[in-house]
Amino acid sequence: MSRRRLLVRSAAVLSVLFGGLGTGVAHATTGTALYVDDAAAGCSDTGPGSQTEPFCQIQPAADSAGPGDTVHVARNTTRYAPVTIGSAGTPDAPVTFVAAPGDNPAATATVRVLAGTSTPAMTFSGARYVDVSGFSLLSSGPSTLVFSLSQHISYDTGSVSTAQAGTGTGGTIAVDGSSSGIALTRLQIAPESGGPAFASAAGAQDITLADDTTPLGGGISATGTTGIHLAGDTIVTTCGNGISLTDGTSGSVENTVVRPDTTASCPDTGTPAEITVDAASAPQVTADYNAVNPLSTGTDYDWAGTAYGTSQAFLTGTGQGAHDLDQTDVTLSTQNTPLIDSADADAPGELATDLHGAQRVDDPLVADTGTGAGDYDRGATEVQDPLSLGIAGRSSADVYVGVPVTFTAGFVNPWSDTLDGYRYTFGFGDGTTATSTTGSVAHTYTQPTTSTEIYATVTVYRPDGTTMGTEVSLYLAVRPLPALTGSLNCRSASFQIAPSLPDTAGCAFTAAGFSGYPITSDLISFGDGSKAVSATGSKGVVRHTYAAAGTYTVTQRLTDSDGRTATDTTLTTVGPSYVATGPSRVLDTRKGTGAAKRQVGPGGVVRLKVLGVGGVPASGVTAVTLNVTDTGATASSYVTVYPDGTRRPTASDLDFTAGRTNPNLVTVRVGAGGYVDLYNAHGHVDLIADVQGYFTTRAGSSSSSSDNRMSNLAPVTPTRVLDTRYGTGAAKGKVASGSTTTVTLPKEGRGSGTVGAVLDVTVTGGTGSGVVTVYCGSRPSTSNLNYRAGQTVSNLVVTKVCTGGKIRLYNSGGHVHLIADLQGLYTNAVDGTSPWGSPFVPADPTRFLDTRNGTGAPAGRLGANRTLTVKVAGTHGVPADATAVLVNLTGVAPTTATHLTAYGAGTLPNVYDDNLSAGETRPVLAVIPLDANGSLHLHNASGSLDIVADLEGYIG
């Protein structure tokens, strides 16, 4: 090992080894007290050595001391000069050198003596009966502590170190052949590599090394020494030679741990044994209760010239070491190691206290395998009771104002010591304290902490009143007591009910409060008079099926064990699910389909059966969507479609003039017996109706092929998806007669969850008359839009959507331009692409706007490039949180050709809802989104006109 490396290690080990200072051998002393203090202002080496005028150095005190005198040497931060002690005491009145308080406040401070040259720091020359305790010696020479011609010397508790490699056989501690009765106890001996920690010369007698340690290597060497006893030492070796007894040395080696410096690099062969006793010494040395642990390349014992690699081989070959251990890398610790409670308490020279002056204690976790008291540990250090302070605990991680929290003293107590008689003082970080004899106390904070967290402390007192220490808790924040809160959400698509369960709501709930006040009741009522549901847990989803479509108030009422209550409400809208059919013709008075074969006269009513026909089920249907067409009218008139058995509303669904053919899409509730009524106001007219789909309240089943067609409506921002005038969605130019145009919807219409689309379809510039049919799959025989040459006409269309978001438009007549604006999508699943639809709630037709008479807006025509805003949500049965409305929108008598655009939030979109010629009155069904204020916007492009709007339902 290098000198530089060892010096660094020496400094580190010296600084931490000592836990306190022991005492020397006890004698009856009645002498004078002498004082040494080199930091005292009045110190003098020629003075009396009194407490008021101490010596500056140790040497004059040593020269002055006689039998029974005690020399008190101050523990200062400075280092004293080397000293040679030749004092002579008597067996009953030894000369004593002890460490006394000085200017070094460290609890482990010793008297430090430094020899800056090769001179030993302390030499005993011709000394007798001298006790030294509490000194740390350091020398630059090969030997630091030397005994010459000296007898009955005890040197206890301290350190002895060399600062450079020694030569020859001299040790850091050296005893000559004329010295005897030397006791070296509780010492850290730190030699530079190259010399032994201890060496005694031939002729030396009666030497004891007990509870010493050599942490930096070196070993114990005795040559021709009579009666050397090693007891309870811990010897760290560098490549063997931990103990060497030669040339007829006698004595004992017991309770000693010999282990290698694992950082040292040693040769694979030729490394000396850890313990060597030559043939001349072996008959006079006993060895037992040791723990010998060489490197894997080393040897345990070399006894009388024979090497032994294990303790068992050693026992077999010599009869020695019956209780030795040779487990590699065994160290003394608080763990369950075989060194604990396994030493020979009666070993020659063994002490009642360890290296640090600690008493021998029994480890209850380890069986006693030693002799005598049975609780001595091998090596220089006795494992002490590991009882120590931990972290102050508390009963709750979260601390709240007004809620008691219990603080508890924490201990590390693997030996399960009784804590009877201990006392505790708690500080809570808020300026208050409390005492306890149980180790725990409850405290209630009255104020929350601010930005700085606090911590609690507990000071622990032993039964004898001494302070064990103070422990702290983890930092804590005192918070206001959490409010009891609940929340409801019946809108999110993530927990909404699939369209296959119409009129059913799914509502997510949360419930939170203070864990110390558990929630005792969480009742959710659904606003329809049904019994409230009891919810459990901090969150979840509840379902409820309503008897009728509509918007309902859902209420959550919470109560906790402290009697606190909380309420939350939200709206939910439920309605029937839409199923697209054919389309299928269910009425044609020209042919007697669905009614008598004749025109409907003025004031006439056609009672049309819609349940059980045209693909509509015979029951479980609340409304149907019909494409209603007038043809062959003899006079200008209007048609109102309404549930059979109800009072006819003032609203109209179809306005027409004589001689024209006009379609309009109508969604109407089904009346008594499965009928709807069609009323004609004036003249005679033929009526045609094609069913496009129906709204059902009947839940689907896994065996029903219609389940995947049940859907809800998702309004979208009006978007133009086809305009052949500009090449939007298809080739630029009029479509030919008998041609089919395929349109691909935007991305949101291409998902697997999209089953239908709502479009406003317009034809313009036709070279002849014809019809347009919008479809998916096989083309039906029905039509959606009738037009004449040169006419611009629109109609709302509900169509199925094919895979990939595709729909088809068939043109039967002359060449014509086609325009299509997407208004909504019918969807049945959340697939990451398709929007989630909302229930549609049909309503009896209700007029909410008529600019001719001031209904819903000031009376007066809407001018060119003007926009009319109409509040709809919160009126006429439309809930405040409705997202869109279904409106029959009618433009009345414009002064010039124009178009109406209906929209919700945002800027005016480039779409048309109603196209009108000058003087024409034409209705069109429209799905109109509502803005954040629940309003819709109607924009007129040119001229001026009146506007009429009839509500047919809303989307929740």
Structural overview:
49% of the residues are buried. By secondary structure, the protein is mostly beta strands. The protein is built from 3 helices and 67 strands. Strands 1, 2, 4, 5, 7, 9, 11, 13, 16, 19 and 22 form an 11-stranded parallel β-sheet that branches. Strands 3-6-8-10-12-15-18-21-24-25 form a 10-stranded mixed β-sheet. It has a 4-stranded parallel β-sheet with strand order 14-17-20-23, with no helix packed on it. Helix 2 links the parallel strand 1 and strand 2.
Task: Give the arrangement of secondary structure elements.
Elements: H1 3-17, E1 33-36, H2 58-64, E2 70-74, E3 83-85, E4 95-100, E5 111-115, E6 122-125, E7 128-139, E8 145-148, E9 151-162, E10 173-175, E11 180-190, E12 198-200, E13 205-210, E14 213-214, E15 220-223, E16 226-231, E17 234-237, E18 243-246, E19 251-254, E20 257-260, E21 275-277, E22 285-288, E23 291-292, E24 301-303, E25 306-308, H3 311-318, E26 388-389, E27 393-394, E28 399-400, E29 405-408, E30 411-412, E31 423-427, E32 433-436, E33 440-443, E34 457-461, E35 467-472, E36 478-479, E37 485-489, E38 504-512, E39 519-525, E40 533-534, E41 539-545, E42 550-560, E43 565-574, E44 577-588, E45 605-609, E46 621-631, E47 637-643, E48 654-656, E49 662-669, E50 675-680, E51 686-696, E52 712-723, E53 740-744, E54 754-764, E55 770-775, E56 785-787, E57 793-800, E58 806-811, E59 817-827, E60 840-850, E61 866-871, E62 884-892, E63 898-903, E64 914-916, E65 921-929, E66 935-940, E67 946-955
Parallel strand pairs: 1-2, 2-4, 3-6, 4-7, 5-7, 6-8, 7-9, 8-10, 9-11, 10-12, 11-13, 12-15, 13-16, 14-17, 15-18, 16-19, 17-20, 18-21, 19-22, 20-23, 21-24, 28-36
Antiparallel strand pairs: 24-25, 26-30, 27-29, 29-33, 31-32, 31-34, 34-35, 37-38, 38-41, 39-40, 39-42, 42-43, 44-51, 45-50, 46-49, 46-51, 47-48, 47-50, 52-59, 53-58, 54-57, 54-59, 55-56, 55-58, 60-67, 61-66, 62-65, 62-67, 63-64, 63-66
